[in-house]
Amino acid sequence: MPRVVIADSSLMNRWAIRRALAQAPEIRIVGEAQNARQLMAAIRRARAGALIVDAQILSGQVPLIKAITQEPVPAVLFGDSSDPEERALIGQLLAAGAARVLPRMPLPSSANFAPAAAQLIAAVRTALDERTPASNIDAAPTEPALPDAANQGPARIVAIASSTGGPQALQELLAALPRNFPVPILAVQHLARGHADALVSALSAKCRMRVKLAQNRDRLHPATVYVAPDDYHLGVADQHSVELSDAPPVDGFRPSATWLFTSVARRFGAGAVAVILTGMGRDGIAGLSELRQAGGLIVAQNEASSVEYGMPRAAVQAGLADFVLPLEAIGAQLIALT
């Protein structure tokens, strides 16, 4: 049975978390903590599969942060993006492998409790899935596949989309690319509002290229990763500049993977490469279809290396993926394509 430890200084908050997890009877709460000392003790004795931790407990607790990041125990964090100290702390923990960051739980009497509970349960299940070793069904190829001769040669832009499990996947992928990667990269990651800055900090800590939060009309430069900001679609205005849009969500998402892929397809055509990483749902499929029609290439993460295979699976099942690769092989493939 999946085992979790809850850590929050507020008794009411811990009660709300317990009420939320009660809707998932397969998840067993094996410990609670209201301060750093208790959390450290719980980590040592409870053999938990995942931690649910309020970021405030970790503030200034360097030994505890090291214990969490060194243990192979994924953490789901609650944090306040408006607090600069918490934002910096969350960035540090994302860089170290935290599974997900969520807004703090509302009380059960709130109208927002049901969707917040569902979001928490999904995040915990994802974190617990990370404890399951990946199979070796899809081994990394010894040589990266080269583009089909019908393609127009080297790619001129890379667009990446991810959701559940995406922060860690993005860190691993971008860390595999060289400092002089020859094209710009645009990235859409589904996050709780207020945590885009923390994601940029986490990626910057692992990536040899420049990573920045995208701004409207940013010039596109090689070896630069442009991350979608909160609540804006990310795309390109032309082959030289970024375009942000506050147009309505696409299939419930803003930023939307479909918006990104459609935008680069229309501006770059066969010079675009799309990468669809781990995530729930089908966001991006309509955009990948347009990119395929424009002659672009599509790389999908394989099931064995995905935390959640929904988005890549949808691309594969739709026959849109030119390459289906384990995460550790995608970087080499992008180098080959560019």
Overview in brief:
The chain is of the alpha/beta class and 338 residues long.
Topology (elements, then pairings):
Blueprint: E1 3-7, H1 11-21, E2 28-33, H2 36-46, E3 50-54, H3 55-58, H4 62-70, E4 75-78, H5 84-96, E5 100-102, H6 113-129, E6 157-162, H7 166-175, E7 185-189, H8 196-206, E8 210-213, E9 224-227, E10 233-236, E11 242-245, H9 257-268, E12 272-276, H10 285-293, E13 297-301, H11 310-317, E14 323-325, H12 327-337
Parallel strand pairs: 1-2, 1-3, 3-4, 4-5, 6-7, 6-12, 7-9, 8-9, 12-13, 13-14
Antiparallel strand pairs: 10-11
Helix pairs in contact: 1-6, 5-8, 7-8, 7-12, 9-10
Task: Please tell me about this protein's structure.
The protein folds into 2 domains: 127 residues, 3-Layer(aba) Sandwich (Rossmann fold); 181 residues, Rossmann fold, CATH 3.40.50.180. Helices cover 37% and strands 19% of the residues. It is built from 12 helices and 14 strands. It has a 7-stranded parallel sheet with strand order 8-9-7-6-12-13-14, sandwiched between helices. Strand 1, helix 1 and strand 2 form a beta-alpha-beta unit. The longest helix is centred in the middle third of the chain and has 17 residues. The chain is elongated. About 6% of the residues have low confidence.
List keywords for this structure.
single chain, 338 residues, alpha/beta, Rossmann fold, 2 domains, 7-stranded parallel sheet, 5-stranded parallel sheet, 12 helices, 19% strand, elongated
